[in-house]
Design goal:
4 copies of one chain form a homotetramer. The first copy, chain A, is of the alpha/beta class. Chain A has 10 helices and 13 strands. Chain A has a single domain, classed as Ribokinase (UDP-N-acetylmuramoyl-L-alanine:D-glutamate ligase, 3-Layer(aba) Sandwich). β3 (37-43) of chain C pairs antiparallel with β3 (37-43) of chain D.
Chain lengths: 325, 325, 325, 325
């Protein structure tokens, strides 16, 4: 997997998909019904990954759709502030709102989320709003699975991938499966298979691969055997507390464990993993170290209150890796 | 206008329509983009009116629709806690969410609201979910205009009014016009006219009556002349800072001014006015005093942080009236 | 019931609602699956009534919505040809089609209909497409129930009725209940009650009144007692083969039987009844004779192949009445 | 291109997509507005192809969705009668109707069509209604482009293709572009590219390939260069009156002209071409002869009144080829 191509391009990574608002419970250890105050953060898997990548020092851009309202303007302004380029962000003019995720923090194991995802702006990104010139400036396009859940966002993603491949831009697919936006598991499986077969890098949990394959208790071997028949060159499969594996098309296998931490809540883990993993690849640290970076970054984020604002610097990641060597 | 009928009934007032969540800016004097924390309250005009009426000592019930999620359960539990009977509340089983209103408090004059009202549960109340036995127990049914904005809630309201009239229960119509839920002003005018012609008591601002009549700068005389041809017996028209007027079918006219206060924000004024006005009518204080009660109650609520939680007691209202006599 | 008012107006009757296409089986006595050829006619209850009225010599106009396609142009051109003014006909520009009704003629008792009524143009008539100046030229507005089944047509009807009442134009309501367009019987009952309470003349079958009242086996006495509390002045209730009754607000009751004929199919009966009944009223023949006209006209139409094209002249009606005196 | 595989399978070809009703003008040489009678035939590109293939002697099956109404039952019964297996036909239970195409026959050059395709049953085929066991019995799956226009039919097609590839069943893609069902040309291009890249055989007109590529005046060379990078092994490009070309992955090119005939109307040409072309391939006549078969079959159908019922036998095709040698 060579990530040293196209170093002349303006962006290491452009993420495409949803940017929304997390409203995290200020009061801990209680159900949301009894939570009376919420703090506002930028959220959404691809937005978090772009923010995480930017905080680590990569050049990151974003393609998405937000309304010109108070929440939309907050998202843009926060992303710009942490260095994410938002030239690919389209303004919704049809009255769609930013998605919301209210989170409760009952205990480290119980953190339910209440989603407002009905007719949200990000799912109304149109294929003709994806700009070929913007994608041409990127070395890698990061696609997150939730953007495939509905038309026209689904077609915007298909268009972006066709443009990426036409312009020699790598495609990374973060499965990011959120059941609430999908019509059925069958439909999810159809589109996940389609996109995974078109991607260069695929990252997900074992459960997400199982959903894509329509199986339960699937094996990594079957997964990589199928995907390596297509475009994939690097596949990451995460197994929760048991750590994660990376497989390359030329047959190498890498493994990493997890880093201990004081877990506050579980959300944000996947996004911080992906941003740190890709950062390590782009900085030529090798796949094995990249797995460690992903893992350490996830541990840091789940010990903190937010997903986006808590994205670590490389110093913090390295310190944790060092501390638990 | 005789409100002494059917004293044997269990409820003085049953309100029908939306019960939702207000998320009020914790930080003042800044635009919402810069507000980082929000406090949660029950909101929605008819819910606020039922809550206000209950806090004043009336027997209040509620007909509405909420999901069985964290926000829905909070609403029920808050309403029960302040004494509102929720036997008429139906649980949504189709995945609709509670409506949300994010408020900013920039200055007393500028308080914009960001609404999440797309496919909200309250607008999915079905006509067959309105229980005749429940309405039969009420002396007055309070309808707020927003519930007319969409089917099937619109038909549920029409059904409730047909049942109220069949069972000798008075109908009060609070115009409560919120442009964002309506398809067009023309459609609003059609349904507002239809319901105002069926109601016994109509309460609204001069602007709301203008919208209903499709005019600008309409006159109170024209409004009452038309409505008194139909069922209306008592019409209240509010003129903002210039005070309000009440007209009865037998030709009496009453006027009241407004009470001075430290305005924090403007929302909640109409709901607190309606609940205190109806409370005074039910307790036989007469129309003139009822206008003062409405006015004083509104002044109290706009000086406080929420709409529902800030609903005053009769002692507070009387103290303010006394203080500014 | 005085229909002698406003003789100066251009139109005796303006019908509002659907104008569509009937595709009647050319081959008789077989199920539609085996029918290989279909003849095309204009159809739709209010269109048929306007056509029938015009053929009898009344001045008739029409308010509806049709696309500018081959079926839409056929409808306009046929209506004009038989003398119906179509100045109130609006052209659909959003791609909605004309409704279709395929009929089979298996036997006089069995004539099933296959409807294409999904997103048809007539149900997209907007309230702002109803022209007050046009309604002002009519002595009577004929509303058929099916147009109430969906928004925005429903609101267009409500608007037309508000304009008719404002301009002293009588309102006749033909119940014309077609289950397939309605969401539920409960919703039908709500709107049928609402409109019947606003109409001057109400015409329907006993079954249709039952549906409106949410009862089965309802009595004419209950129906007229309720409706005469509102605006109705003349109520016609049809009992199929047992004939029909007309009730006036001042307490008169009229009855008529049915005329024998060779029944080919049953559809079109109600429309031909309504047009001949109204024609007789407008020509001062009195309610009793009007019932006979309605009945004879229905007998003529059900013996012929179409609904619209078969509408009789007054000579044919009078000949049948004379023949079976 | 080896079509000799899996001769043990029950079906040579299974077509998937729409089966609907054509209502063809009985009266010729006039606009549809003046056509008063229509004849009923089975229609829809993949249904016509299955019917054509069956009449030529292939074993054909069909996957689609029709309601259990008079039109749906006619379709099934006609297909069975001409030998098409309909075990893959699913009954719609949600009230969707069969699509309709009214055709006028003004002159050989002018034959406009009026489509009823809004919410038609065929576009509601669900992915879980596509049966793997049925596809497993086929040597070739024929997909027509129109079925990609809307969800869930779109996903049913994607699922069918994934199942075909999993079970070593060839995929033929007939572009069959009908603008009226699609949201935008951009969306069409996205899905046409996606499916053409997954298919073994692609058949279309030059205009259809241009639409897929988002170009005008595109070249066959560019088209085949791109598609042969993916799965395609055989590509047919039709140029109307100038004849058609076939390209194979191993570099062969074949050409054929057109056969003279008395053109009555133009529709049905593409479907008859595809069925005869595939028949010739399956019977090992070679690509060159297959082009002739396609061309001759098209000439026969456009000289007759229907598309499906007019599908020729191999004797008729051979006679025409012989006659114009």
């Amino acid at each position: 997997m060579d990530l040293n191509t196209h170093k002349e391009r303006k962006f290491d990574i452009i993420a495409i998909g949803r940017a929304c608002i997390d409203l995290n419970a200020v009061e801990y250890n209680r159900p949301m019904e009894e939570t009376m105050t919420f703090s506002k953060y930028v959220g959404g898997s691809p937005a978090n990954i772009a923010i995480g990548a930017s905080k680590l020092g990569l050049h990151a851009g974003f393609i998405g759709k937000i309304p010109d309202d108070q929440h939309g303007r907050f998202i843009s302004s926060y992303m710009n502030q942490v260095g994410v380029n938002t030239d690919g962000m389209v303004v919704d003019t049809e009255g769609h709102k930013v998605g919301l995720a209210f989170t409760e923090i009952k205990s480290p194991e119980e953190c339910s989320i209440l989603m407002y995802r009905d007719h949200v702006a990000d799912l109304y990104l149109q294929p003709n709003e994806v700009d070929e010139a913007y994608i041409k400036e990127a070395r890698l396009l990061l696609v997150s699975g939730t953007a495939l859940a509905k038309s026209p966002s689904r077609e915007a993603i298909l268009k972006a991938i066709q443009l990426a491949r036409k312009n020699d831009c790598l495609v990374a697919f973060e499965l990011d499966y959120r059941p609430y936006t999908w019509v059925s598991e069958e439909e999810t499986a159809i589109y996940y298979s389609l996109i995974a077969e078109l991607a260069d890098i695929v990252i997900g949990t074992r459960d997400e691969y199982d959903m894509m394959e329509g199986v339960s208790g699937g094996s990594n071997e079957a997964t990589i055997k199928h995907l390596f028949l297509h475009h994939a060159k690097l596949i990451v499969i995460k197994h929760g507390a048991s750590g994660s594996q990376a497989y390359t098309k030329d047959g190498e296998v890498y493994r990493a464990g997890v880093y201990k931490t004081n877990v506050l809540k579980t959300f944000g883990a996947g996004d911080s993993y992906a941003s740190a993993f890709l950062y390590a690849l782009f900085t030529n640290k090798g796949v094995e170290t990249a797995l460690k970076y992903g893992s350490a970054s996830a541990s840091i984020v789940i010990s903190k209150h937010s997903s986006s604002d808590a994205m670590p610097t490389s110093q913090e990641i390295e310190a944790l890796i060092e501390a638990q060597k």
